[in-house]
Specification:
Helix content: 25-40%
Bound molecules: adenosine-5'-triphosphate
CATH architecture of the largest domain: 2-Layer Sandwich
Strand order of the largest sheet: 1-6-5-4-7-3-2-8-9
Number of strands: 22
Shape: elongated
CATH class of the largest domain: Alpha Beta
CATH superfamily of the largest domain: Histidine kinase-like ATPase, C-terminal domain
Number of helices: 19
């Protein structure tokens, strides 16, 4: 808004639907920790100050007046008001409409819709999401926001609302730059106009705000950037408080890494891993959580490039004096600098995780259960840190106790003489993997097999392709280089001609449902097994793709291998002569059972009739 607009009359506008829902939650459901409203408003004020300082330092835009960069809070214990003023970047009227009245981000919209529909309003989740400015309505019956943008010639405006569905907007003089928010406190929140209460809250939540915060003229916080201090001088409490500040958290961090480097870049970094993986709670994709500073001046909040995407759960700050304030993705030089910084920080962080996994393996497993999915994403997508990430992966295996996990280096240490491959097999649970046919040959040869449970596991391991020179091989690949189990004593097998005859017959019966039927050299107890012949997609990847696209029908090539020593298979040879119709039904069911064991059955209902018929025949023979 420009100066001429100052004569604009006041207008009333409706809030966007999601804002109404959000306000309803804020006003009606959040009473337990109402004091967080102050943290939210101070955090916005600090952001506005950081933005102004940044623009000022980089010479973009200017403000006519030299104002101290600070946040002041004035309390009126008689009128029961709290006024918070910052000399930050301010907003134009358009920006007010855009920022305070709409939520653009679709993930946040979804979250609010879900939250509005759920019974429990988990404060921790809302805290992570950040109700932001609207938290003011937890304590205020009416909120007035006056603001003037730092842009030359910008006019001031005022936004007023009682949080009930609409707000008024009109011109306002008074401020020369920045934002003032006046809270008219509710009858039951008068305590927030008392200085000692407000000072306590500031000390608790906002001690690390890098601008002075004054209450009735007296500075309350000690401005400090603890990441630049020596590790030995920072207390546990300071670290935890700082984490709460930087991660918008209410609890303590799970891991903390504070490190300093001089070469190849000067770096002070303080990184945290939270206790919870917020993506699990249906928040959608996490925003990056690390801020970049240069000599304690914020240059990018939630920086995209400082860590790879798959480390987006990490929170904290990275300060490097080698970075220019106006760092830009557009210039090659800056991009190269960021790449270098990212490589160093990522490498250091992965080394830290590796150390933790050795120092406190149980704690690391807890981390793995919460955040392992991100590391798998890294293993599947990030070539530059592949080996370091690979070391951090954990899986159960045929040689681990249930619930215990092994790493790839553990696996390699235990490998048999001459073993050149690392084997893995996917299944929904340990029990289902162990009951299936895939392990039989591995058991017989005493080879360890890693158990994977999610499709992402197989994508990660397949994309890794190898670890320390050993190829990753899914145990359901058709071409397997492992010794065949020795023949079982006293068990006859079909001869060569019989096998040829039977496999050809199977193929004729099953038609296009399989690409090949052949003799198996890897089965002991099971009559048949499904393998993939193209070697590209493991069974779990096929399952995943099928689930994504139901219309696609069967995917991937399927090889049915039959066990020529198994009584059922052997009996089929003669049954064909005696009762061709029954033999065909049994053959179909052998395939379906193998598909069930592979987790690849699309419609089990088709089997029902066939199973009844087999049961009927078998009972008829008994009677
Ligand atoms: N004191 C202020 N000065 C300037 N702009 C502000 C101020 N307070 C809020 N804003 C603007 O309003 C926007 C919305 O604020 P709000 O607190 O709702 O969300 P946020 O700060 O973006 O997110 P969050 O609080 O979750 O970090 C901010 O992004 C900012 O652009």
């Amino acid at each position: 808004m420009t100066a001429e607009d100052a004569t604009k009359p006041r207008r009333t506008r409706e809030f966007q639907t999601e804002i109404k829902q959000l306000l309803d939650i804020v006003i009606n459901s959040l009473y337990t920790e109402r004091e967080i409203f102050l943290r939210e408003l101070i955090s916005n004020a600090a952001d506005a100050l950081e933005k102004f300082r940044y623009h000022n330092l980089t010479g973009e835009g200017s403000s006519a007046e030299e104002l101290p960069l600070e946040i002041s809070i004035e309390l009126d214990d008689k009128e029961h008001t709290l006024t918070i003023t910052d000399t930050g970047i301010g907003m134009t009227e358009e920006e007010v409409i855009e920022n305070i009245g709409t939520i653009a981000h679709s993930g946040s919209k979804n979250f609010i819709q879900q939250l509005a529909a759920s019974d429990s309003k988990d404060l921790n989740l809302i805290g992570q999401f950040g109700v932001g400015f609207y938290a003011a309505f937890m304590v205020a019956k009416r909120v007035r926001l006056q603001t003037r943008s730092y842009l030359p010639g910008a006019a001031g405006c005022e936004w007023v609302s009682e949080g009930a569905g609409s707000y008024d907007l009109g011109p306002s003089e008074g401020l020369s730059r920045g934002t003032r928010i006046i809270l008219e406190l509710k009858d039951d929140t008068h305590e927030f106009s008392r200085a000692e209460v407000i000072k306590r809250i500031i000390r608790q939540y906002s001690s690390f705000v890098p601008f002075p915060i004054k209450v009735n003229g007296e500075q309350v916080n000690t401005v400090q950037a603890i990441w630049t201090r020596n590790k030995n001088e920072v207390t546990e409490e300071e670290y935890n408080d700082f984490y709460k500040f930087v991660a918008n958290a209410f609890d303590e961090p799970f891991y903390r890494l504070h490190f300093t480097a001089d070469a190849p870049l000067a770096i002070n970094a303080l990184l945290f891993v939270p206790k919870q993986n917020m993506e699990r709670f249906g928040f959608g994709r996490l925003e990056p959580g690390v801020n970049i500073y240069s000599r304690k001046i914020l240059i990018q909040q939630h920086a995209e490039d400082i860590l790879p995407q798959w480390l987006r759960f990490v929170k904290g700050v990275v300060d490097s004096e080698d970075l220019p304030l106006n760092i830009s993705r557009e210039t090659t030089q800056d991009r190269a600098l960021m790449t270098k910084l990212r490589r160093v920080i990522t490498g250091r962080f992965l080394k830290f995780l590796q150390e933790q996994s050795q120092k406190e393996p149980d704690k690391y497993l807890e981390f793995w259960k919460t955040f392992g999915v991100f590391l798998k994403e890294g293993a599947a997508t990030d070539f530059s840190h592949r080996d370091d990430v690979a070391k951090l992966l954990r899986f159960e295996s045929s040689k681990s106790e249930p619930g215990k996990m092994v790493s790839l280096p553990d696996y390699i240490d235990r490998m048999k003489e001459g073993q050149e491959e690392i084997y893995f097999i996917n299944g929904p649970t340990r029990a289902s993997i162990e009951a299936g046919p895939y392990l039989e040959a591995f058991r017989a040869a005493d080879l360890e097999v890693l158990y994977t449970n999610e499709p992402v596991d197989d994508f990660a391991l397949s994309n890794l392709a190898e670890f320390e020179g050993k190829r990753m091989v899914s145990a359901d690949t058709a071409e397997l280089n492992i010794p065949a189990p020795p023949p079982q004593e006293g068990v006859e097998s079909l001869d060569y001609d019989q096998i040829q005859d039977l496999t050809a017959w199977f193929k004729e019966v099953l038609g296009a449902r399989v690409s090949e039927v052949r003799e198996s050299t890897r089965l002991v107890e099971s009559p048949a097994i499904i393998l993939d012949l193209d070697g590209m997609m493991t069974g779990s990847m096929q399952r995943f793709m099928q689930a994504l696209n139901e219309q696609m029908g069967d995917m991937g090539r399927k090889v049915l291998e039959i066990n020529p020593s198994h009584a059922l298979i052997k009996r089929l040879l003669s049954l064909r002569e005696e009762d061709e119709a029954l033999a065909r039904i049994v053959a179909e069911q052998v395939l379906d059972n193998a598909l069930i064991a592979a987790g690849l059955v699309q419609d089990p209902r088709l089997m029902v009739d066939r199973i009844y018929r087999i049961m009927e025949q078998s009972l008829a023979r008994k009677s």
